[in-house]
Every structure is written in structure tokens, then in C-alpha cells.
Amino acid sequence: MSLAELQALEREHAAPTYVRSPVEFVRGSGCVLWDVDGEEYLDFLAGISVLNVGHCHPRVVRAVREQAGRLLHATNLYYTAPGLELSARLASSSLGGKVFLCNSGAEAVEAAIKLVRRARPGGEIVVVQDAFHGRTYGALSATPQESKQAPFAPLVPGFRVVSKHPEAVAAAVGPETAAVLLEPIQGESGIHVLSDELLGAAREACDRYGAALVFDEIQCGMGRTGTLWAYEQTGVVPDAITTAKALGGGLPIGALITGPRLADVFKPGDHGSTFAGGPVIAGAALEALAICSEPALLDRVRVLGERLATGLAALPFAASVRGRGLMLAIDLRDGLSAPELALEALQRQRLIVNATGPGTIRFEPPLVVSEAQIDDALGRLRSLVQ
Fold first, then answer.
1. What is the DSSP letter of 27?
2. Mean pLDDT, 10 residues at a time, over the chain (386 residues)?
3. Domains present along the chain, CATH in parentheses
């Protein structure tokens, strides 16, 4: 089927919710994608931080094939091993509490909202400017971006938005606060690292009033910053974290992970999901989690992140670079359009990057990227201005 035929199918039958670039991908391996015509592309987006282990990692593919041949689904009314093993490994790799498995990042955030409201009924949830927590109603209500919220008002009540300053976050927390919900690194708004001072102020205020501190690590977790979880580099330990994206190695899954304080808040019947923790996807996630936990890989993420950041800073069109590990963004010099530059990179240089706004480009390559591929990507970017 040609690209024109696919575009016709989209116009006639697909809800118009995406703006797609004019390319059809049919195969992937590691950091490389191939389109329908056999053209090779270097992927520095990883499906928006989904393919941290790379495209079609052999261990993930093998786990899916083996499990799919045994059992696809059995419901959570019965026992299957992969989901429970995954819950145990997620808990032991992080906060040591309990885990609710689901199917996406937004669902993980919805579970977190329900959890903290179950712990403190009617309590307010504090969020900060520029946050993005998802598009379902609860998660959208925690996402203070007018363009995303306004068409769908009225939203879920009980969210307080404050500026990204330690004093503002601390002042917003009180006896009626259920939780503070934060992304340690804000991804969708353009890779903005929240300061350790802000995270520390949130922790101190939550402790003072008995509120929960929840970190949204849906994009910044699973090794993206050079540690398995981004919070490990901050000195601040939350009461719960949400994860998704890279957890499934390319398949859809999410999780809410609690520490001991919130571990037994949910009771039977409080929450659930038909497909959550199914054996095939949980099997894939077990392999992805094991790969992303490897110390050698995490060490390389930090080293290669510095290499990429240094190269990005030297680009003639880059005004600034920010981020951590292999979660980076550049702001463009005045007069340049990030969407246009990203499309030009795709079409002229076969390099996949992403614009998160009119002047910002995001770089999130698979964590298995090599030094040569980073240098190659930087060379392709430099060629855009020649």
C-alpha cells in the first residue's frame, strides 16, 4: 500500500488526532528504522522514549514469542506468573512497596490520583506549571496547559497549579493536601529539569502535613537519565512513582509503584484493569527492565549523554542545551522553526527528532546508541545548515 493510499485511509477512517510526518516505517533494529522504500533512518526519538532498549531487542522479541505461544490472557481473577514477577522486580528496584500494573502512562497517573485521594479523601493535589501527566480526564486535569485543557472543560476538580519555585510548592501544601505530583524532568514541555531544591521543598512540605509525594517518571524513568529512576540522582525519595513508555520494550504497559507508606491503601475493588499485567506484555517488560537496569548500560547513558550534549551545544543553530543523560533538548536561535527543522532532518538527513514547541527540539535516542551513531546524528544536524 502506498503512502498516498495510507493518507487516504487516514482521512476517511481515522480520528484526526495526529499530525503525521510523510513516511511509513516497516522495520526497526536497535537505533535504526527502515521505511517502506528501504531507506534507512537514524532514530533519536525512540518512539518518544519508549524504545529505550532499541527497536526489536532480541531478548524482548524472544520473550514475546515464547509467551504468546503459551498463554495470551487469563484475567486478573486468576494467577499468572509474569505480572506478579514484574511487580516484585519493580518494587525491589525502587521504593519497596507494592505495584499496580496498567496499560499506559495516563492510566498510571489515574491510579496515582485515586490512590492519594483514597489515602486522604477529598484532598487537593498540587502540580506545577508546564507539567504534562496525560490526556485522560484525571491526568489532563493535572496538566496545566490551556490549549490541552480548555476544549474539554469542565475538568476534574481539586488540582492546584503553582509556579516552579521551591517556595511556591511549599506554600501550596497544607493539612488538606492529598499529594504533590511532579515530573522530575518535564518531558512534553521541552525537557525541563526540576531543581533538587524544588523536589526537596516538596518532600519536606509533604512530610510536614502528611501528604504524599508522587513522581511521574513515565518519560524520564527506565534508565533515560543514567540511573534506572530519575529520582535516584536527586536525593529525594517519593512515596510513589508512575512509569510506562519504556517499561514494555515497545509494548503498551504502565505501573504505579508505591513505597511502604502507601502500599496498602488500595482495597479489593478500588481499582482494576482488564488487560493490566497480561502475561505477554509483562514478559516483555521483565526483559526490558532487566536490560535497563544493567550497570554498564546506565554508565554509558551518562557518558554518551555528555557527548551528545556537548555536540548539540556546538551546533550553529542551538541557543541552549538542557536535560540529563540521554534526555536532552535544544532551544533554537531566533527566527528558526523547530517543527520545520525536525521535518527537514527527517526528509533530508533521515534523522528522527521531535519538536516539542515552536523553538525546541527533543533528543531521546535508544539507550543502546553507540558513540558512532551519536557522532553520525550530530553530523547530519550540522548538514542542515549547509
1. E
2. 93 96 97 97 98 98 98 96 98 98 98 98 97 98 96 97 98 98 97 98 98 98 98 98 98 98 97 97 98 98 98 97 98 95 97 97 98 98 88
3. 3-57+295-383 (3.90.1150.10), 71-292 (3.40.640.10)
